[in-house]
Amino acid sequence: MGAVKLWAASLAMGFVATAACGQDYPAKPITLVNPYAAGGPADLLARTVAGGMSELLGQQIVILNKPGGATAIGAAYVASSAPDGYTLLIAGASSHIVTPALSSRTPTRQSSPLRTAPG
Question: Most CB atoms within 10 A, among 34, 44, 60, 84?
Answer without folding.
Answer: 34
